[in-house]
Amino acid sequence: MTSEARGTGRYAPSPSGDLHLGNLRTGLIAWACARKAGLGFVMRMEDLDERCRPEYVETQLRDLSEIGMDWDGDVLFQSDRIDAYNQVVSELLERDLVYECYCTRADIKDAPRAPHAPPGAYPGTCRDLTEVEREQGRQKLAPMDRGPALRLKTTNDQLTITDRIWGEFTGHIDDFVVRRGDGAHAYNLVAVVDDEYQNVRQVVRADDLLESTPRQVYLQKLLGYETPEYVHVPLVLNRGGKRLAKRDGAVTLDELHREGWSTQQVFALISESLGIQGDNSADFLDQFSINSIAREPWIFDSETLARSW
Ligand code: GLU
């Protein structure tokens, strides 16, 4: 059996900016996890957001290749997959598993919620409306130039998933959005549909998405898809404990090159954060093990490092 036939791992960046060290590190980990497990490895551009730009597709793929990642087949673009998402939404509609929601953010914030529901959970306001109430809802939204969102009818219960780094993780499943009021398909829907389409058996991504995973697993089960293995990788933070951002100085490959860092030096730094000695992808693959990923975030301090090179 070829590695792709056994299933794939994937990296799914959003082309809304250049990749920073944390993204590159997560990408490399995803690639190494898949290759070590004998799986195929595919690339997906999550380009549905209006902040995404074709030039970032180019720079992201260039940077990922530069650090030695390779992938099987063509890059999948979510913007080419709208028909597939619409088809799944139609299936959910036919099965009476989604309903229109006319709530604004303020409506949701102010609504009373069940005692066990966590803050931010959708309180179910629009789930059982009459036809007259639905019509009123549509009229309320019309002047805001948006239609109703579509929400999944869930059991509003807890769901526990298993992660290779975090062990068991339990999340509350509310009636989450599958298509937004502006017509865009929601991340939780498209990620699940594309993981199935790309035969993904191993999802490696940053741990800020761990919370989305129970919802995604819930949807997989409804659609009859297999649940992949999950590996949520801790983020890279700055000295202040915040996510890396522009204000942290040189954090993208291009910026680091301009500061005089070679690709090998960047590679060595990422490797070192995982206890790997070496400055290239072959060494990385050779020494990599999922067990070497710590639960703690990697703290990147560009100023101190810049002085040490
Ligand atoms: N597009 C998401 C990101 O760049 C990743 C989504 C995923 O891996 O499921 O953070």
TrEMBL record:
Keyword line: Aminoacyl-tRNA synthetase, ATP-binding, Ligase, Metal-binding, Nucleotide-binding, Protein biosynthesis, Zinc
Keyword Cell cycle set for record: no
Family: Belongs to the class-I aminoacyl-tRNA synthetase family.
Assigned EC number: 6.1.1.-
Name recorded for this polypeptide: tRNA glutamyl-Q(34) synthetase GluQRS
Domain Glutamyl/glutaminyl-tRNA synthetase class Ib catalytic: start-end pairs: 10-282
Gene3D superfamilies: HUPs
PANTHER family: GLUTAMATE--TRNA LIGASE, GLUTAMYL-Q TRNA(ASP) SYNTHETASE
GO cellular component: cytosol
Transferase found in the keyword field: no
Biological process per Gene Ontology, one example term: glutamyl-tRNA aminoacylation
A Pfam family assignment: tRNA-synt_1c
Enzyme class: ligase
GO molecular function: ATP binding; glutamate-tRNA ligase activity; zinc ion binding
